[in-house]
Amino acid sequence: SQELEQSPQSLIVQEGKNLTINCTSSKTLYGLYWYKQKYGEGLIFLMMLQKGGEEKSHEKITAKLDEKKQQSSLHITASQPSHAGIYLCGADIEPSSASKIIFGSGTRLSIRP
Amino acid sequence: DAEITQSPRHKITETGRQVTLACHQTWNHNNMFWYRQDLGHGLRLIHYSYGVQDTNKGEVSDGYSVSRSNTEDLPLTLESAASSQTSVYFCASSESAGGAGPGNEQFFGPGTRLTVL
């Protein structure tokens, strides 16, 4: 969705390095979701952020929500081969519309041994 | 454990044929969704349902239909398959009864890869 932009589109990092993926909305965010997808598989829900300044962690993956910038960042510390995959952000941009989520186009992450 | 399944996982069909993709969830979720995923377009919403007998069109609904006769299933039908419908199709479900927030996160099936020749 053009309403939700992810950057970068792809990323190759050395194993053990840190990395950040960004997700920016052109509309007010009422909820922000991060998913991971491995090739040929479905999307795995990682975490949801709703309040400005909120930060959550899932293993070595941390996500933050900047309400003012309408942006979320996903940070991976000490990357491992198991982190490779496509990361997608999804957003609630209509507060009264139950359950509809728009998705970014994804960031393809490769980990170099 | 509760889950969401899709069948078939892979399908090859010919232009003009009717195709039905199955989606079954055991979460007892009210809401179910169908998306297609294509390179350069990300995930696009085809149809969705907020409960039995309820169906709604998404942003790319032309050529597709759904029906919801029970809570667990939302089959997606391609009335007359076209090559432009070659894609990976994902079904998802969520619990939320309304509004953004906890419970609105969607859980996805493994996908169906459809090729229309």
Uncertain runs of chain B with pLDDT below 50, 5 residues or more? none
Overall number of strands of chain A: 11
What Rg of chain A is obtained from the alpha carbons, in whole angstroms?
13 Å
Biggest interface, chains and residues, is: A-B, 28 and 28 residues
What is the 3D shape of chain A? globular
- Secondary-structure element sequence of chain B? EEEEEEEEEEE
Helical proportion of chain A, percent range? under 10%
Q: Using only CA atoms, what is the Rg of chain B?
A: 14 Å
Describe this structure in words.
The complex is a heterodimer of chains A (113) and B (117). Chain A has 113 residues and is mainly beta. Chain A is built from no helices and eleven strands. In chain A, a hairpin with a 4-residue loop joins strand 7 (61-66) and strand 8 (71-76). The model of chain A has no long low-confidence stretch (mean pLDDT 90). Chain B has 117 residues and is mainly beta. Chain B has no helices and eleven strands. Chain B has strands spanning 4-7, 10-13, 19-25, 31-38, 42-51, 54-57, 64-66, 76-78, 87-94, 107-108, 112-116. The N and C termini of chain B lie far apart (37 Å). The chains are: A mainly beta (113), B mainly beta (117).
What's this entry about, in short?
The complex is a heterodimer of chains A (113) and B (117). By secondary structure, chain A is mainly β.
Task: Name its key features.
heterodimer; A: 113 residues; mainly beta; six-stranded mixed β-sheet; five-stranded antiparallel β-sheet; B: four-stranded antiparallel β-sheet; 50% strand; globular
Which secondary structure elements does this structure contain, and how are they paired or packed?
The complex is a heterodimer of chains A (113) and B (117).
Chain A: E1 4-7, E2 10-14, E3 19-25, E4 31-37, E5 43-49, E6 55-58, E7 61-66, E8 71-76, E9 85-92, E10 102-103, E11 107-112
Parallel strand pairs in A: 2-11
Antiparallel strand pairs in A: 1-3, 3-8, 4-5, 4-9, 6-7, 7-8, 9-10, 9-11
Chain B: E1 4-7, E2 10-13, E3 19-25, E4 31-38, E5 42-51, E6 54-57, E7 64-66, E8 76-78, E9 87-94, E10 107-108, E11 112-116
Parallel strand pairs in B: 2-11
Antiparallel strand pairs in B: 1-3, 3-8, 4-5, 4-9, 5-6, 7-8, 9-10, 9-11
